[in-house]
TrEMBL record:
The chain crosses the membrane at residues 6-25, 258-281. Its EC number is 2.7.13.3. Keywords: Kinase, Membrane, Phosphoprotein, Transferase, Transmembrane, Transmembrane helix. GO terms for molecular function: phosphorelay sensor kinase activity. InterPro entries: HATPase_C_sf, HATPase_dom, His_kinase_dom, HisK_dim/P_dom, HisK_dim/P_sf, Sig_transdc_His_kin-like_C. This is histidine kinase. It is an enzyme of class 2 (transferase). SUPFAM superfamilies: ATPase domain of HSP90 chaperone/DNA topoisomerase II/histidine kinase (SSF55874), Homodimeric domain of signal transducing histidine kinase (SSF47384). It catalyses: ATP + protein L-histidine = ADP + protein N-phospho-L-histidine. SMART domains: HATPase_c, HisKA.
Length: 519
């Protein structure tokens, strides 16, 4: 698959996931808005009904008080001689209009009581003289009922005027029973389908809290709802009911619990998609590396085979047998190329280690300082042949480690071989091997003064088949397996390895392994 195709597929899938995520979030937000609006409407409707109930309670209270105060007057009004002796009793109130004008209302019980008598002739017809006693009794009952109706109507008018003139001057604690308020709120919320806990406050027109139930809090501003009590009072004397719902958020978000699993699975799919795309790019890169590996391997294996074949043909020439020096040279070439071919085949076989989760290692306790000295003594001849130097600095006092001796020796050899392969031209190589302790670990560092590499290449140098780009230079051959083998062996021995390098200044490999403390 081409890189352009992978990129196109990644963009299309990523766009589809973003659109899906956007639609889910938008739908969730819309549902939250609807749920919030529904809650607000139910609460406001309930509080409005509570306000109406309190207004009814106030009207009923004033009616009861006025009826008790007027009980004696009603008894006098109901006597037969009321048409002959009527006392005049009046009440008045003044209403202030918003434009500043005043209206004075006067109510006279005498006039209200007399009005039915003045209209008596037009409403009820008097019976003729000499009519029956039954007709006379019926007429008296009608007059009595009409008088009572007129009185009740006058009483109601008086109550209304009294509410308008006097009620707003009374403190809110006298106008409202706080226990009834709580009862009304609970019943109205239940009627509107809200069975949620609440607490409330009543604030007077001076913004002073007159009553507050337990649990009221002002931290969540959006969970407090306000309702004006007795809205027909003068604007300067309006009292307020404030209701706090501590579980408002739980109620609003409660119906959206199914969105959370949906969102989680969407994110999981998105992560899986990203991982798949990254894996595709890695596989593409690995495929390219394998192609380079096959090309390099073909070249590396073909060269010694061609040399051996040529040398074998030379041995068939009888004239070579007569020259011992030429014969010795040809056989030496065959031996060297055979050894080189064997070494390259061994490198390829090391790939089998990467197909296993863990290599089969023969672990035993060895002294890291002794192993470093042994490898250095073997390698020093190669360094001196290039007019270089190989120094050792053994500072580690605790140096007993548990490793596979053969594989760990190969690890040190591979790093030293790379230091010589990637040396600077016309500059003698300088190698330094150090050991030191750091906590319960031993640190083995191998430093050179070679060509070095960029920091981004130093992070990838342990990947299989990876080779640091050198432009058009092909003077150093290899498969890109050496350092990958090094990292796998060190990791399987419970150690770590990293490369610190700077282009043009050299490279430093740092190996960390746990030490065995001597008891």
């Amino acid at each position: 698959m081409k890189k352009s195709t992978i990129w196109l597929l990644a963009i299309v899938m990523f766009t589809a996931f973003l659109v899906l995520l956007f639609l889910q979030v938008r739908y969730m937000k819309t549902s939250l808005d609807i749920r919030t609006q529904q809650f607000d409407e139910q609460v406001n409707r309930s509080l409005y009904s509570v306000m109406k109930e309190l207004e009814k309670d106030q009207t009923l209270r004033y009616l009861e008080e006025d009826m008790i105060a007027s009980e004696n007057r009603y008894s006098q009004y109901n006597r037969p001689q009321i048409s002959q002796s009527i006392t005049s009793e009046s009440s008045s109130t003044t209403i202030m209009h918003p434009d500043g004008s005043e209206t004075r209302i006067e109510l006279s019980r005498t006039q209200q009581s007399l009005q039915p008598q003045q209209q008596r002739e037009s409403v009820f017809l008097s019976p003729n003289r000499g009519s029956s006693t039954i007709s006379r009794t019926q007429y008296d009952m009608q007059q009595s009922l009409h008088k009572r109706y007129a009185y009740e109507k006058a009483l109601m008018d008086e109550v209304i005027l009294e509410i308008m003139s006097r009620a707003s001057d009374e403190p809110i604690e006298k106008r409202v029973d706080f226990h009834n308020v709580e009862k009304y709120i609970r019943s109205q919320l239940a009627y509107n389908g809200l069975n949620v806990p609440f607490s409330f406050q009543i604030v007077d027109f001076n913004n002073k809290v007159v009553y507050s139930s337990s649990g009221f809090s002002t931290k969540q501003k959006n969970a407090i709802y306000t309702q004006i009590l007795f809205p027909k009072d003068p604007p300067a004397k309006l009292n307020r009911l404030r209701v706090y719902f501590p579980t408002r958020s739980n109620y609003v978000y409660g119906e959206l619990s199914f969105f959370i699993p949906s969102l989680i699975f969407t994110i999981i799919l998105l992560i899986t998609f990203i991982f798949t795309v990254v894996s595709l790019f890695r596989q593409k890169r690995l495929s390219e590396m394998k192609n380079d590996f096959i090309n390099n391997m073909t070249h590396e294996l073909k060269t010694p085979v061609s040399t051996i074949s040529l040398a074998s043909q030379m041995l068939k020439d009888e004239s070579i047998l007569k020259s011992p020096e030429v014969f010795k040279h040809v056989t030496g070439v065959i031996h060297d190329e055979t050894k080189r071919l064997s070494f390259q085949v061994e490198k390829v076989l090391q790939m089998s280690l990467f197909d296993k989760q863990k290599a089969t290692l023969k672990m035993k306790e060895i002294d890291a300082n002794d192993l470093v000295v042994s490898v250095a003594n073997t390698h020093v001849l190669k360094v001196e042949k290039l007019d270089g130097t190989l120094d050792i600095d053994l500072q580690a006092e605790e140096s007993t480690i548990k490793v596979d001796e053969m594989h760990f020796t190969n690890v040190i050899f591979n790093i030293l071989d790379n230091a010589l392969k990637y040396r600077k031209k016309d500059v003698p190589p300088e190698l330094m091997i150090r050991t030191r302790n750091e906590g319960n670990k031993i640190i083995i560092s191998i430093e050179d003064n070679g060509i070095g590499m960029k920091k981004e290449d130093a992070k990838k140098v342990f990947d299989r088949f990876y080779r640091v780009p050198t432009g058009n230079r092909h003077d150093v051959k290899g498969f890109g397996l050496g350092l990958a083998y090094v990292k796998k062996i060190v990791t399987d021995m419970n150690g770590t390895i990293r490369a610190d390098s700077e282009l043009g200044k050299g490279t430093k490999f740092i190996i960390s392994l746990p030490v065995i403390t001597q008891k």
